[in-house]
Amino acid sequence: MKSTLYLKTSLLLLATLTCFAQNQSFKWPKEARMAISLTFDDARGSQATKGAPLLDEYGVKGTFYVVPSAVKGQLAGWKKVVDKKHEIGNHSLNHSCSGNFVWSRKSALENYTIDQMRTELLEANTQIETLLGVKPESYAYPCGQTFVGRGKNAKSFVPVIADLFVSGRTWLDEAPVDAGYCDMAQLTGVEMDGKDFEHLLPVIEEAKKNGQWLVLAGHEMADSGAQTTRLAMLRKLCAYAKDPANGIWIAPVGEVARYVKGERKRLGLAE
């Protein structure tokens, strides 16, 4: 009895160590110890006028998840963002969230079907490509919500995102992405709005220690205000990430996602 229990325990330990070894074998390019992606939602005006130009100063490329109607309101500015090689992602056609957000009641996720969601996502892709000449391969869930319908009829539309995009990003998460394990259609998005660099640095250092991918998420890009990624913080973050001594690969979500998929395939890890 004891020998059987010992054997089972040993096999479990071996499996655990093997899994750990696989994760440890995941390598970032250029001897980096982690990856960071800077992402911004909604196509807010300040992103095109203030935020993207700041990133350009440091040679950093961000991922901007846009809603077509917002892009139309500042089309010339967004074309400049594309010209600078920032990534443009899909953030839905109508920014639909739960009807618990009163402003979303007319396009509440509770009233959607999977087919309606797929149709709108494809239409958003078409409009974004018409406006900006790029087809999005990354998606961010508005409000971080991944369902349609309600009650017994509620369904996840994560499989739709997995089918249409290389990656999907959620919102207000508490952990970085484990590149060797993660569901690429549900990348965790860690909020950077309202935070100073000194507040984010411990999060960065912990992710670096674990060899993770930190996908930071924000909205407005200005000096202050609600739902705002502070420009002063971004300057410090960009300077820190671009210093080779800090071992960080900073790149758009799409670029990192493609690398992760290739590396996982090479290592025989689940896709």
TrEMBL record:
The NodB homology domain, residue ranges: 34-251
GO cellular component term of the entry, any: extracellular region
Database matches in Gene3D superfamilies: Glycoside hydrolase/deacetylase (3.20.20.370)
UniProt key word Signal: yes
Signal peptide bounds: 1-21
One GO BP annotation of this record: carbohydrate metabolic process
Entry's localization field: Secreted
Superkingdom classification of source: Bacteria
MF-aspect GO terms: hydrolase activity, acting on carbon-nitrogen (but not peptide) bonds
Main localisation: secreted
Protein name, as recorded: Polysaccharide deacetylase
Source organism (scientific name): Emticicia agri
